[in-house]
Amino acid sequence: MASIDLPIELYSLIFEHLDNNDLISLATVSSQFQRGAELLLYRNVDLSNSSISGQRLLSWCTTVSTVERKALRVHFLKFPSSIKGIPYHCDPEILVNSAFLALANLKHLLLTGGDKDDSVSIHPAVLIKCSFKLTSFLAGSFDVGSTLQFLATQPTIEYWVPTPSFLQACVDFPSTTLPLLRRTVLISPEKLHLFSGRPLDSLLLHLREPQFTKGFGMDVCARLKPFSRTLHTFVYTHRSLLEDWSAPAMIRALAESAPRLKSLTLNSFGGTSSKTSTQAHKEFLDAVANLRLIETLVLSTDMEALYEPNNEALDNLNPLEHTEAWEQHSLNPVQCRKVATGFMEACRHLRQLSFPFRHNKGFKTMTYLRTTDGSNAAKFDGFRTIDTSGWWMK
User: Fold this and answer.
1) Measured at the alpha carbon of residue 235, what is the angle toward residues 234 and 240, in degrees to the nearest 5?
2) Which of 107, 126, 368, 387 is deepest in the core (most CB within 10 A)?
3) Would you tell me how many other CB atoms lie within 10 Å of the CB of residue 208?
4) Which residues, other chains included, contact 341 with Cβ-Cβ below 8 Å and sequence gap of 6+?
5) Cα–Cα distance for residue pair 183/186, rounded to 1 Å
6) Shortest CA distance to 111 belongs to which of 81, 69, 72, 67?
7) What are the phi and psi torsion angles at 370 (to 5°)?
8) DSSP letter at 211?
9) 197: left (phi over 0), alpha (psi -120 to 50) or beta
């Protein structure tokens, strides 16, 4: 049977649907297949899985340090901070150092985990000698001095997550370090001042304080003001609000400090109100209306308005409103759509919205999209949550 000669672009599209074992096999078929397969095998490399033996990891290091074309194809690398099960005849430091020095086109480096009883895989002094220019960097085992020294050599980094130990120990962050920093994750809002002057556009705050009072919440929101012109994506996580600090109050404060927000994920429960369902929902909509540019809104606050009766007709054009799941969840699809439409009417740029509802096993989430007919109506899109973690969940 004659072979089919396809453009290389089509082969590349096919290869993207294959697993690593298939790609390894294809690499032995022809030089053309080898190039296509290696581009995928070496472009994004994850060696952080604990099941990967030290011998296999060091074998990969040997390959990229001795075969230049493979080393140059590595753009994303997830590498363990320490190595287990090192073969007795190997010098891991030499092999790992040689591999990193060969990765000239590396853009994203994530050094994961680390056990004090294991051999350290890579030292900051070696990274400083590398020729790559990163855009993303995560490392959990470097001290403050070594971290700052390395970061000073990487002015192209746009995404960096400081460790809790770094935040605790760092008292000064040079203004010339990470001038292009755009995305970060913090557990200490009081350290936000370290990044003043950077074009921060995406921020996740994961707060660990056992109590979240109004005073603390207002202080957190105020610390966002230095980034008011650039911040457009905010993920805010704190599981317990007190009665004097409700979700609407938090949203109003955020809208004042970060008026250019386009995506807000608010992961906080509590802050109960003594107001009626109708009053509480109006307060919520009035607060959200202050987010004048918001396009994506993910809430975790339970809203009593969802459970009010509604005898209006179902949406016959949306089969998702006619499934048995609504009855199983004891929800009225018409009322839920009404609640979602209220948000669309309050925020003219809002395109997608997720919010929770009570379930017998806790809470689940539903998602609505703005209809495309030019109206402010919302359309149910499924019992799911909008994923806003793409930029930080590496």
Assistant:
1) 130
2) 368
3) 10
4) 376, 377, 378
5) 10
6) 81
7) -70, 135
8) -
9) left
What's the predicted TM-score (pTM) here?
0.85
For residues 120 and 139, what is the distance between their CA atoms, to the nearest angstrom? 12
More confident residue, 310 or 37: 310
Query: Which residue, among 204, 258, 272, 248, has the nearest Cα to 226 in the 3D structure?
Result: 258
pLDDT per residue as tens digits for the range 166-195:
888 888 899 999 999 999 999 888 899 999
HSE, CB side, 13 Å, CA atoms: give it for residue 371.
15
Helices 31-43 and 8-15: angle between axes, nearest 10 degrees: 40
Q: Residue 212: its pLDDT value, please? A: 66
Instruction: State which amino acid sits at residue 126.
Output: V
Residue 240 pairs in a beta bridge with 269
| Helix, strand, or coil (residue 235) | strand
**Residue 244 in contact with residue 211, Cβ under 8 Å?**
no
Please state, in angstroms and rounded to a whole number, the distance separating the CA atoms of residues 345 and 70.
Answer: 53
Residue with tokens 């016959």: 316
The pLDDT value given to residue 274 = 47
